[in-house]
Every structure is written in C-alpha cells, then in structure tokens.
Design a protein that fits this description.
By secondary structure, the protein is an alpha/beta fold. The chain has 2 domains: 118 residues, Urease, subunit C, domain 1, CATH 2.30.40.10; 298 residues, Metal-dependent hydrolases (TIM Barrel, Alpha-Beta Barrel), CATH 3.20.20.140. Bound molecules: zinc ion (ZN).
Length: 427
C-alpha cells in the first residue's frame, strides 16, 4: 500500500524533461511479454516506464541507471484488461426481485459506495479500463465514481460511462407496482423525437461519455427458429437518439437481444450492439459492413440462465452457435461481461476470456478482444490496449502461460495502472 501511495503522490509532481528532476523511471523485466500487437510473445522483454507512460518495450536490454527495477521475469506480462460492458452500481440481479430491491431499498449514496468497492475489485482482477453501461436507477452516480477514480481518491479502472440509458415510457423496470406509487425507473423514460434529442443533451450535460438505449424486450423463439423480440423505440426516435449523440461527438450502445431489436439498432446507426443472442447471418453481414462492434456478455448469460429458466438457456445455446459464425465472418468482437448483472464478489469478470476460447477463439484472439479491440471501441487505441511506447503504463502479470491455459487470466498477480503498482503478489 505504501508503495502505491508513493507512486501516486510522486507522479503528478514530477516534471517531464523540465531540466531539473527527471520523471520517475521504472524498468520491468518480463519473462514473457504479450504486447497485444504481435501474435507471438516476446521472451525476456524489458519494459521501460517514465511517469505514467510506457517509454519502450524491447526484447532483452539492460535497465538504465537510476530506474527502479520490477522483476516479473517469472511471469507473463500483458496489457491491462478492458471490459466494455459493466454496471458498477449493480450487485447482481438473477431475479426481478433482486433488481427491484436494489432500487427500492438502497439509496444512491449506498450504491455508490458499493460501486467504488466494485471498481477496486475490477482493478485487482487486472481491468485497468471499463465502459460502464448505465447506472440502473442510480442517476449520474457513475460520473462520480469515474471522477473519484480519475482524481485518485479511490483505486479503480479508467472509466467511460453511459449514465442513465433510455427506453420509452413503461418499457423497463420498475414495473408491476400500484399506479398510486411514485417509483424510480432503471432508465430514463424518453418519448418522441424531440424528447430523444433533449434526453441525449441532458445526459451529455451531466457527463455521459456514451449514450445507451434498450432496443428491445420480450424475447421469444418463433416457428422460424429465430429469436424475436418487441422493439422499444420507433425508428424515428432511435435515429434521433443516435443522430443527436453523434452530433455531440458521443457514441451509442444498444442493448439488443432479439433479431428484431438488433435489426432496429443497426437501422438507427448505433456503434455497438450488446448481447445480441438473436443474431442471424444477414445481421452479422450488416455488422461487418457497417463496422459495428458486438459485445457478447457471455458471462452474465451463462450465470443467470439456470436461475431464470424459460428461454434463457436456449438463448445461451443460440449465442454459442452465433459466436462461431460471427468469428468466421469477421464481426468485430469486444470483450464485455455485464458485470453487475452478476455479483462482483462471486465471479471474476476475466472468466469472459475463457468462454471466448471455449466458443472457438484462440487464446491470443480472446486476449485481443479484451485489450486492443476493446481500446479501439473506446476510441483509446492511441492510449491503451497494447504495450508500446507512448501508451499509458497499464499492464498486468500472471504466473503461467495464458496462451496455453486461458484461465490464467483469472489469476492476475500484478497490476499497474498509469505507472502505479496497485497489486503485487509476486514478492
Ligand atoms: Zn448490461
């Protein structure tokens, strides 16, 4: 802990090449380096860090004089992981009752305290960046969590946040209570083209980096074997959301599970599709053509299926089949877990890498989904996602070889973010 504080306190005070004191320099000896660029690991690499950035990553070489040396020579070093679909303000909701209880019985300040705890768990599991995709009734508290982390008041990943998410009136919980009660909603209810534009402006004003909306609900299999759904917004409304967000320089994520919801989101021009169990060949082709990312969130699907029953296991099976097809077609897949949909304390979100390998990716392909491809989705390709000169010094180390056993990524032993060491179990 002392070491972490020293790094954090030192870094903003140290002038970079200001003629006087040089920036703090750290040299990491990596037994094996998976830099996120090359498919082949580099044996015995040296990573030089100046302040909060990577200065170089080279095979071999000696540590420069005056640099602090961190010996990771018995480990595999990788870029910090990125999860592009999380809910830090949620603690798992297998059943509707678990969801309702959080909105009805927990205050937003209480939920924000747990969110800070969840961010710390994520960082300790090697996640140095996350896109948090809506607060589920906790208003703009994700902006506060992001700010507290950025100001180094609490440890956690770098965050991009979506704030409240949107559906039309009545198409997202809390539902089913007496009309006499004034209840919170898990989203912002938005109606009409003008309402859509206004809601986007409002969310951006309060700090949204992304706009998220729920494209569909009521998922059901029809006689054609395709997973269908009811579409929430009219095309005009959905297009207004996307157009206004893009006009303000923000990107849009759509929750879409059934084929109808996915098709509607693609018509509206969204940037990422979340879950997408009901993909069809034609929809995958359209995603490739438009360069839209797929964020599969397998961890949550497989976690909630047994508890929810109904179609959920069938939907998970369909997603497995679609994953193989999408991989062959070249759909851009970025790692997202829906952490918060499952309990942060019970499931390590790095499990998602393991599912991608089970579903047909090579280990290095799976690693790219949660590093370089995820960074690209965030618009941070020049800042993170690989270990190379000029990028943030965000990296992790594991004891074994994740190219042989992907579950190694669930046993992160060392975490550095912005040149500061947050975890080191290798002493
Ligand atoms: Zn989600």
């Amino acid at each position: 802990m002392r070491r972490f504080l020293a790094f954090v306190l030192a870094s903003p005070l140290v002038p970079v090449f200001a003629g006087g004191q040089a920036p703090h320099r750290t040299a990491i000896r990596a037994g094996r380096l998976i830099d996120g660029k090359s498919d082949k690991p580099i044996e015995n690499a040296l990573i030089l860090i100046e302040g909060d950035k990577i200065a170089s990553a080279t095979p071999g070489g000696g540590a420069p004089a005056g640099a602090e040396v961190i010996d990771l020579s018995k480990t595999t070093v990788l870029p910090g992981f990125i999860d592009v679909h999380t809910h830090v303000l949620l603690q798992g909701d297998v059943t509707a009752a678990e969801y309702d209880d959080q909105l009805l019985k927990e205050s937003i300040p209480y939920r924000a305290i747990l969110a800070a705890r969840n961010a710390q768990i994520a960082l300790s599991h090697g996640f140095t960046a996350m896109r948090d995709l809506e607060t589920e009734g906790a208003m703009y508290a994700d902006v506060d969590v992001k700010t507290a982390i950025a100001k180094e008041e609490v440890p956690g990943p770098r965050m991009q946040v979506a704030t409240r998410a949107m559906t039309p009136t009545g198409m997202y919980p809390l539902l089913g209570y007496s009309w006499e009660l004034k209840l919170p909603a898990g989203v912002q209810y938005v109606d009409g083209v003008d309402g859509a534009r206004k809601a986007v402006r409002e969310q951006v004003m309060y700090g949204a980096d992304w706009i998220k909306y729920y494209s569909d609900r009521r998922y059901h299999f029809a006689g054609d074997g395709v997973l269908h759904s009811m579409v929430n917004f009219t095309d005009e409304e959905a297009k207004a959301i996307v157009d206004e967000a893009h006009r303000l320089g923000k990107k849009v994520a759509a929750h879409a599970i059934g084929s109808d919801g996915i098709a509607a989101a693609l018509r509206a021009g969204v940037d990422t599709i979340e879950h997408a169990d009901g993909l069809t060949d034609a929809l995958m082709d359209e995603m490739v053509r438009k360069g839209v990312y797929w964020v599969p969130t397998l961890t949550v699907g497989l976690y909630v299926a047994p508890g929810r029953g109904g179609n959920w296991q069938k939907m998970a099976d369909l997603q497995r089949e679609n994953f193989g097809k999408a991989l062959k077609k070249g759909v851009k897949i970025a790692l997202g877990t829906d952490a918060g949909g499952f309990d942060w304390k019970k499931v390590n979100q790095a499990k998602e890498f393991e599912y991608y390998v089970q579903y047909g990716m090579t280990p290095i392909e799976a690693i790219h989904t949660g590093t370089s491809t995820a960074a690209e989705l965030l618009g941070w390709s020049d800042k993170t996602g690989t270990i190379e000169a000029g990028k943030w010094a965000d990296l992790v180390a594991v004891s074994g070889d994740p190219l042989k056993d992907i579950t190694e990524l669930q046993k992160v032993k060392f975490v550095m973010k912005g040149g500061a060491v947050y975890k080191n179990e290798l002493h």
